[in-house]
Amino acid sequence: MLSGCLDSLAGLVDEVVLVDTGSADATPQIAAARGARVLHLPWGDDFAAARNHALDQAHGRWVLSVDADERAVGPGGSACPAQALRNLLAGEPAWDVFSLRVDSGPEPSERPWGEGWRPCLFRADPRRRWVGVIHECLAGPPDDRRARIAELSLRHLGARSDPPTAQRKHARNIGILRRALGKAPGASELHWYLGLELDAAGAHEEARRELDAAWAPVANDPAAWSPQWSHLAAALVLASLRVGMAEHGLRVSREVLGRHPQSPEFWWLLAACLRARAMPGAAQVAARAGLGVAEPDPAISYRRADIRDLLIRQLADTPVPTP
C-alpha cells in the first residue's frame, strides 16, 4: 500500500518524511527509493508519538499528514489537483488547519458512517501536536482557524483489508487501548475507541459495554457535551441494536435528538430502534421527522447522502439490516 500512497503525493508535496516504527518488511527501502526521508523510532504503543516525530523533522511551512494506507485524491476520486492546492496555500489563506474528507468505504450502503473529516493539512507550528495513543487528534492553539476544503481528500484503503489482516490490526489496537486504560482508567475516549475496535472484531457485547462506559459521563453531565460525542452515541446505538438492546438505543437516540433535533442520522437510528421494538408506526413517524429536516445540523450531520434513502426505506416499512 505504501507505494500507492507515495505515488499519490508525487508533485503535491516538496518532501516526504516517513517514520518507521519497526517494520519487518521493505517499507524503509520502498520509501527511500521514492525519495522519502526515512526516520526510525522504536514503537511505544503511541501513534501520536510517531506523527509528532515526523512533525519535528519536517521543513515545510505547511504539513500534510497521511497514513501509508491512504491515497491523496481530488474531487470525486480524480487525480489530485496539485497546482490548485499549491495556489490555495501560496495565497496565504485565512485558515490555519484544513480538514480533508476521508473515505473509508467500502460502499455507502454497507458502511453508513464510513466517511468523515480529519484535520490533515495545517501550518507548521510547534504548538500543533498530535495527541492520543490511537485515533490521534490534532491539538493546537485555542484561536486556531479551521475549515474544510474540497480540493483534496483521502481514500483510506485500510478499512478494506482482508479478514486476517483486519483481525491482526484489531488485536493490536485492542491491546494498545487496554494498556492505555490501565494507565488512565475511566478515560471516555479510550473506552470509546476500544468499543469500536471490539465491535469491528466481532465482540459486540463487550463493545457495547465499553461504549456505554464512554457514554455515561457525557450523558450524566450536560456541561461535558460537545458535538463530537454524537459519533460515540451513534456507535453505541448501533452496538445496542446488534446485541438486542433496542430499548437502550432508544434512550441514547432520544438524548441526542433532545440536543440536536435537526439530525436526520439520529432520526434514522431512532426509527431503527423503534422497528426493532416492533413499533413500526412509531418508526415511520421518526422516519418522517428525519425526512422533514430541511437544514441538517452541521455540527453532527456527517453521513453520506444515502441517509435519505435509509429513511425512505424505514418509512416504507422495509426491513433495514443493522449496519
Describe this structure in words.
By secondary structure, the protein is an alpha/beta fold. It folds into 3 domains: 2-160, Spore Coat Polysaccharide Biosynthesis Protein SpsA, Chain A (Alpha-Beta Complex); 161-224, no CATH class; 228-323, Tetratricopeptide repeat domain (Serine Threonine Protein Phosphatase 5, Tetratricopeptide repeat), CATH 1.25.40. It has 12 helices and 9 strands. A hairpin with a 5-residue loop joins strand 7 and strand 8 (137-139). The protein is globular, with a radius of gyration of 21 Å. It starts with a helix and ends in an 8-residue tail after the last helix.
Query: Runs with pLDDT <50, length 5+?
Result: 107-113
Number of strands: 9
Give the biggest beta sheet: 5 strands, mixed
- Gyration radius, in Å: 21 Å
If you consult CATH, what is the topology of the largest domain? Answer: Spore Coat Polysaccharide Biosynthesis Protein SpsA, Chain A
Secondary-structure content class: alpha/beta
Strand order of the largest sheet: 3-6-5-9-4
**Total discrete domains:** 3
Strand content: 5-15%
The DSSP helix count reads: 12
**Apparent shape:** globular
- Helix amount, in percent? 40-55%
Per CATH, the class of the largest domain reads: Alpha Beta
The CATH superfamily name of the largest domain is Spore Coat Polysaccharide Biosynthesis Protein SpsA, Chain A
Helix/strand order? HEHEHEEHEEEEEHHHHHHHH
**In the CATH hierarchy, what is the architecture of the largest domain at level 2?**
Alpha-Beta Complex
Distance between termini?
27 Å
Average pLDDT rating: 88
